[in-house]
Design a protein that fits this description.
Length: 528
Amino acid sequence: MSSLKIYDTTLRDGSQAEGISFTVEDKIRIAQKLDELGVHYVEGGWPGSNPRDIDFFTKASRANFSNTKITAFGSTRYPDKKVEEDIIIRALLKTETDVVTLFGKTWDLHVEEALSTSLDENLRMIFESINYLKKHRSEVLFDAEHFFDGFKNNPDYAIKTIKEAESAGADWVVLCDTNGGSLPDEVYSIFSEVKKLVKTPLGIHAHNDSEVAVANSLRAVEAGAQQVQGTVNGIGERCGNANLISIIPNLKIKMGQNCISDEQLETLKDVSAFVDELANKAHWNQQPFVGKSAFAHKGGVHVSAVRKNSRTYEHIKPEAVGNNQRILISDLSGKSNVLHKAKEYGIDVDAGDPKIQKILETLKESENLGFQYEGAEASFELMMRDALGEKEVFFEFIGFRVIVEKRQEDEEPISEATVKLKVDGVQEVCAAEGTGPVNALDKAIKKALVKFYPELDEVNLYDYKVRILEEKKGTRAKTRVLIESGDHHHKWGTVGVSENIIEASWQALIDSIAYKLNAFSKNAPPNP
């Protein structure tokens, strides 16, 4: 195989982290982001475990991916069951993915105590499950669960398990440090030994319980691993998984592994922030490579040196991973990012244009208020176009009112919204009821505008997230609302911030409508 393969399990292993819950729409958006990053495999979930994962595979089958193979995950058949009748195997086949990943036991302790079966039966389970799936799928991966613990406890049996997978036709054997208890030298030593005994390409799947999952993954590559598994930002059960956001640049820049292109690597920071936003997590400023503080310098000797030569205190060029240098006493960063975004949005602006400085000032003011534009690209584009004088205004806001009324204890509250807008001098007042105040507001806005702009009829609200920005202020805290909207062609994110959650929602909703109208205006055919 010409290059090392990246296998992402954010949507399956990552979603098992405490406090993480992705909607189906979140998972589709993340999969598409990972595809843009150049990830080779994206593990979508375990179809036999919950309806959400089944729904994901249905929607993923209708989506287009350029670089990524969507992968279904499951276990070997149950002990003493026929493989063709096994409920998990049958669920995997229903997904119709070209790639399936099966995990099986390789630690004799787990076979006897967790599975309560014999060592020989476990070997049959591995062989029969992989052999059966290979008849129906083009690619089958075997995750050798607890392999390093199994090897340390009973090396002969651990090797037998992966030999069974190999003889059954597995395309990959992935050695898993499932408990995250192995150290880098152990991983290198064991991996090197296994490499001599099997011909099937090997991968590594490390957990971070000892804070060495990234190091273990890199050492495995040195020992011959041709695939690395992990999650974005290292999210996962217990202490998390190996962090692909650190692994990928180390592989690419420092170890010379051609796992993704230079252009794809430059999107790394955006991917990291995007997943954090959809997971409703605050970004870790000190995260290596992509954190806000990863290339920040504050006062004294450091600033003096880095201004002369950035290599003095920066181990890589921050732009290589989509980040930027920050001098905290006089912030010089940002212009390159704005220019990059302008190019991405098709906005023609020169680096010396004074309007770029206006955008930077607006951006800083917005961020001080609590706005974040990762996951809200539409709001950022509107802000940029506004600063450049390119934003079209399609309606004038006059006012809105939202009423939530609960009439009886055992009845659901009733939400009603009224909006006043003006289009081309014509005032429109519309009211609508909804399942909540935001839904009512969304309906009322569209009701007021759709007669003027029929294209809004195809816009739907897909997701709605709220982040509390000042936890100590309780119900008086400032909130950030992130909304995902879409039409028949694509989806976009918008953001609003206010101490009043309805006002923050209004801002995000209005940006969503404004983005659609601006986009439609640019793409609409000329009048005859």
